[in-house]
Amino acid sequence: MSLRMKSAALATLLVLGSLGLSAMPAHASASGGVVHGTGDWRDDWSDEGDLSQSAYAHSNVAAMWQAILWADGRLSSTADIDCIFGPTTHTATRVWQQDRRLEDDGIVGKNTFSAASRNLSGASGSGNQIVYHGAYGGRYVTFTRVDNGRWGMYIGSELKTLWYNDATFSACS
Q1: What is the pTM of this model?
Q2: Concatenated DSSP letters for the chain?
């Protein structure tokens, strides 16, 4: 093989290899273990994993979802935030989904997380604090996203990372 052909073959491999790498976007998922994002925080929740009575049902992410339901008036009290995606959370999720004309399957998946993310606000440079503004009586939930992309949430003054496989808030039973 001539030097010219070897150079062309190497160039082709480099181009194809770089196309393969650049075409694969970074996606978050429950298998990553934590609510996570890169770049603009406003699109972080659109690729999170499913949350339901059978998927990550006892976790900090379940507490996150319960806090959103509370902020939107679908759970009556902060005492309902117990990190357990049980029948009450499932029913409240279905009503929340119906309110937004989503499939009301009681599963918090891509479309449900995306709909919830529309109520987030914050600004870069503001201590990475992001707020979910609920639709009920001025209720809100405060989140953080640190430099490594991991999301956290406050319950009262307690800040915890939003783990899919762990329930570490003191409110978790």
Answers
A1: 0.81
A2: --HHHHHHHHHHHHHHHHHHHHTS-----GGGTB-B--S-GGGGGGGPPPBSSSSS-BSHHHHHHHHHHHHTTSSS-GGG-SSB--HHHHHHHHHHHHHTT---SS-B-HHHHHHHHTTEEE-TTSTTEEEEE-SSTT-EEEEEE-TTSBEEEEETTEEEE-BSS---STT--
Q: Residue type at 89?
A: T
User: Residues 66, 132: contact at Cβ < 8 Å?
Assistant: no
Across the strands, what pairs with 66? Answer: none
Chain segment 49-107, per-residue pLDDT in tens: 899 999 999 999 999 999 999 999 999 999 999 999 999 999 999 999 999 999 999 99
Scan for tokens 């953080």, then name that residue: 144
Q: Maximum Cα–Cα distance for the chain, whole Å?
A: 76
What is the C-alpha separation between 71 and 68, in angstroms, rounded? 5
Task: Compute CA 61 distance to the chain's CA centroid, rounded to the nearest angstrom.
Answer: 8
* Chain centre to alpha carbon of residue 88: 21
